[in-house]
Amino acid sequence: MQKLRTIIVDDEPLALDLLRSILAEIADVEIVAECSNGREAIAAASQLNAELLFLDIQMPGVNGFEVVKALQAEVMPMVVFVTAFDHYAVDAFDLHAVDYVLKPLDAERIGRAVERAVDRLKSGLDLSFKTPLIGAINDISERIGADKPQHKASENLSDGMKTKLLVRDSGVVKVIPFEDIDWVDAAGDYMCVHAAGETHVIRSTLRELMSKLDDKRFSRIHRSTIVNIERVVSITPLQKGGSLLHLSEGETLKVSRNYRESIRSLFQ
To answer: Where does 161-266 sit in CATH, by number?
Structure first.
């Protein structure tokens, strides 16, 4: 088996150095990128086709959870969270079978995490790596918001509200106009809605959301991804089929071969 193409991410230089030195002793690992913040991690994971991502959670700016939510499921590697979080987060990771290592870093624990990643790839199953990650993150967000006042959304929506999404975020209901949505990524029963520079997680299926959106504005580009075609600024063909969409806010999304022709037809 080839070595796991691995990205490591931590905003603390000493922690990054330690993680690199531990992984350098593991024969199954090839480090293809080192990132010191969340934005670098998103760019690296989107471009390098990595299989494994060691991801620090507590980083300034874009944290580890936001990195996961920002990545298209099509390019999501296996993730091992590196964390000093309290037990409530660890409980959520265990519940959703999300791998993690606790700080201070331990070589034996990191080695076991790599072994599990190798076993998952050897299984040959078509696994969605993003689904359990989003499930754990959503559980943690709900626990954080449990002590906050809950604002119930009205079930009787006006016609104007039918063109908006209501998103509950840590006890607060946010209103997202459909035209503000840049793209949407599915992870099981969860949807990551990317709008106006933020990512919101909602419980829904892709089919349910597509039924609400204007099909002249939104198009499916993968079994798990919807894009607002008004945000597309260029398209790059890929040698093995499919293509890349470059959006006005800087994101790059992969179009599967099954949807390549339908996307091209929208711009003819």
So the answer is: 2.40.50.1020
CA dihedral for 202, 47, 113, 18, sign (positive or negative): negative
* Segment holding 4, helix H or strand E: strand 4-9
User: What does pTM read for this prediction?
Assistant: 0.87
Query: pLDDT tens digits, residue range 71-119?
Result: 999 899 999 999 987 777 889 999 999 999 999 999 999 999 999 999 9
Could you tell me which residues are beta bridge partners of residue 191?
Answer: 186, 202
CATH number of 4-144: 3.40.50.2300
**Neighbour tally for 173: CB within 10 Å:** 13
pLDDT of 27 over the 70 cut: yes
The single-letter code of the amino acid at 114 is V
Candidate from 34-48, 136-150, 184-198, 223-237 with smallest mean pLDDT? 136-150
Instruction: Return the domain boundaries, the chain.
Output: 4-144, 161-266
Do residues 242 and 260 make contact, with C-beta atoms less than 8 angstroms apart?
Answer: yes
Burial of 68 (0-12, 13-18, 19+ CB in 10 A): buried
Radius of gyration of the chain (CA): 19
Task: Assess contact for 36 and 16: CB atoms under 8 A.
Answer: yes
Q: Is 49 exposed, middle or buried (0-12, 13-18, 19+ CB in 10 A)?
A: exposed
Strand partners of residue 199 = 194
